[in-house]
Amino acid sequence: MPVKATDKKTGKKKLVIVESPAKGKTIAGYLGEGFEVTASMGHIRDLPQPSDLPAELKKTAVGKFAVDLDKDFEPYYVVSADKKKKVAELKAALKDADELYLATDGDREGEAIAWHLLQVLKPKVPVHRLTFPEITREAIQRALLEMRDVDVAMVDAQETRRILDRLYGYEISPVLWRKVARGLSAGRVQSVATRLVVERERERMAFRPASYWDLIGTFATEAAEKFKARLVSVDGARVATGKDFTDRGELKSKTAVHLDEASAVSLAAGLESAAFTVRSVDTKPYTRRPAAPFTTSTLQQEAGRKLRFSSRVTMQVAQRLYENGYITYMRTDSPALSDQAINAARRQASELYGPEYVPDARRIYKGKSKNAQEAHEAIRPAGDSFRTPAQVASSLRGDEFKLYELIWKRTVASQMADAKGSTASVRLGAVSTDGRDAEFSASGTVITFRGFMAAYEEGRDAVREDDDAEGTEGARLPVLKAEDRLTGTDIAANGHETSPPPRFTEASLVKMLEELGIGRPSTYAATISTIMDRGYVTSRGQALVPSWIAFSVVRLLEEHFTDYVDYDFTAELEEDLDRIARGEAGRVEWLNQFYYGDRVETGLHTIVNDLGEIDAKAINSIEIADGIVLRVGKFGPYLERPLPADAPEGTEPERANVPEDLAPDELTAAKAIELMETAAPEERVLGTDPETGRTIVARNGRYGPYVIELIPEPTEEELANQPVEYYKNGKPKPPKKPVKVKPRTGSLFKSMSVETVTLEEALKLMKLPRVLGTDAEGNEITVQNGRFGPYLKKGTDSRSIGTEEEIFTITLEQALEIYSQPKQRGGRQAAAPLAEFGTDPVSEKPIVVKDGRFGPYITDGITNITVPRSTAIEELTREQAIELLAEKREKGPAKKPARKRAAPKKAAAKK
């Protein structure tokens, strides 16, 4: 992507290498003459799969991980196959350059990319390392004045992290394959994130609700001003609220009064004509400070709460904003702002909201982290003077504008004045007709100066149902003083039930990971995507729901790899990587301790080698009800009622499938019993085929109900009576293995079931496809059932027909009539798209989501990309669809295996 040729004055060329073409295009516009900007397209080297190593290395110390365990964990790097062309282009560009500028990102990954470029390109010209927190003219000019060498400590930290994750995944994942299911994976951060989601679901499964009652009343002053208040005490004893109960439904407090329905209704009746008076009024000043500017973590959280963005979408949109010069670097742990940014925020706050909204003193924010990302600023609008949302509205659209506006508001608000006001809490009471003293409470906040709230207010994560469901707190209260008389009306008993702890959302999971010190904000989006792509977690709205297979994985790790899913241990690993990045610890010594241990017993290597026997059945079993166990099987979860010890040999236990859309906490004991009692039979014998004498059965299978003929195994007598064959030397040959006869099968129609299908219907199904006859040219026409319904087939020409029942009734004449009509595209009526997103800005063709063979996919008629498993179609936006199509175009079409060319024929010998 050359941008400038040589400098006309000096005749020199300066080669600048960045990570992405979009970033390079923006940077090129700010550089002077003589610079050529090109992109590495991310990492150019990585650890290969051990199976891709050269044969001579596979049996050495390198063979297991592509890391040499005998040489201080030296990694065996290779240039990725899809990057060889790019490396050749970079080398060619470097040949004519007089200087090399490595302008990759300033975090560990960017530093490692710069180091790899040095190792592969081997430049013989001066090399400069430069980084910039934002892509603006001012930032790039400053970076050119502050160039440095590649930070080897940061490279060591990235390399340690890469090797650590390889050791972790390649040692533990195979254990999951053997004991749970193929294709699963374990990871330093992903396994802990999965454990958090599973533990929250366990809490919900163990939760037992408790009911409690209180009173709500409407009260009026003599001036007829009304407000609501809630009962808080009876005869001086506090009334129990939801916070007074354990998750097992037990009352924790011995001093709280637990009102039931009868006592609450009785008390409400006794207060109908009671004389209420104000007993106390407590007024306090209210002050609230603005939130700090965004870090990567808080941006993901707030974009999830306010914009409903997933972590992955947030980072994708932020990446585009950064590369196009709208915001500063989006991977940072620091909430700090530069002097220029503080001045810009204060100036805009004053201009837009008034000088009184800007405090006299500048606000300084500091982060807790000491790692390398702390060198960056917070995420803020780029430039020494920010562009307002109105100024970028013409150039930004959709998700990009929404995220920019959020970042701008947060940044400006962070430098604004505190919100101020007052809070008032009032206590009022009366004595009921039966002599009980009842006291009610209400509180309210009055904001007298909005301050930063004029620009922005931080969102909240979901919490348990609070005790203020009826709005007795936070409401506006009339002016009250002690001894004021009040009239009580609509005093009613109010029933409540405690709620389980809320499931994690992406925002609250990111917040929890950050609080625990696990992972880094730059990796949270990838971590959440991984646990969703692996099938450990699915989304239900914004809530994250673990799968049953996640329960098995977490249980195995907790029981056999305790440290590796321990929150404190994982946080310590992260801090250790930060220490390496700061040059305070050595890479080799640390990896030795992790893999081999301070003592032999503590290393991952020894733990894996000394695992002993793991009971796979126990790992994949969870008791749901008395006598009912959930098993995680090869084809999904199912319920089973284990057989008694004296059950006859060969007896099959009762089983029932678990519906896919049933969350773990919804599988209660009562639900499990219901599923067992209503389970369809796994198999039903229909009878005997009169032509073959074979038994026909109906079964519920993985892909739906079907019928099959049972092929009996040959008896010992039949095997013994096989004719004997002899070798040429006269010795008898061993008896041949009997040829395995493939049984006939047939899928049931949608209108059929295992319980209702008849032998006659089964025999018809097993004879499909049905031959109708031939057309005038002699082409055979058949009718059969398929994935998309019943259809006719003539050679390669298929045509859909109406219902499955027509398979047995359609005639040759009707089929010929269908074939005489013009064929609809695809051979069948095109299904309506699942979603439509207007015109693609690149291809200028309509973007739609269709249901394909491997699930829903996005297409513009030219490029297709599968909808990620972690994204629900209902939540997919136009901007996401455009982004996914753009990423697929950038990767190019999937390469097909090269076709082997036939060997050239030898020319005939000349006479």
From TrEMBL:
Query: What are the start and end residues of every segment in region (Interaction with DNA)?
Result: 185-190
Q: Where is the composition biased (Basic residues)?
A: 894-911
- Entry keywords, A to Z: DNA-binding, Isomerase, Magnesium, Metal-binding, Topoisomerase
Q: Where's the Topo IA-type catalytic domain?
A: 151-602
Biased composition regions of type Basic and acidic residues, renumbered to the chain: 884-893
What's this protein's family per the entry?
Belongs to the type IA topoisomerase family.
Return the HAMAP family for the record: Topoisom_1_prok
Task of the protein: Releases the supercoiling and torsional tension of DNA, which is introduced during the DNA replication and transcription, by transiently cleaving and rejoining one strand of the DNA duplex. Introduces a single-strand break via transesterification at a target site in duplex DNA. The scissile phosphodiester is attacked by the catalytic tyrosine of the enzyme, resulting in the formation of a DNA-(5'-phosphotyrosyl)-enzyme intermediate and the expulsion of a 3'-OH DNA strand. The free DNA strand then undergoes passage around the unbroken strand, thus removing DNA supercoils.
NCBIfam families per record: topA_bact
Protein name per its UniProtKB record: DNA topoisomerase 1
What is the species of this protein?
Arthrobacter zhangbolii
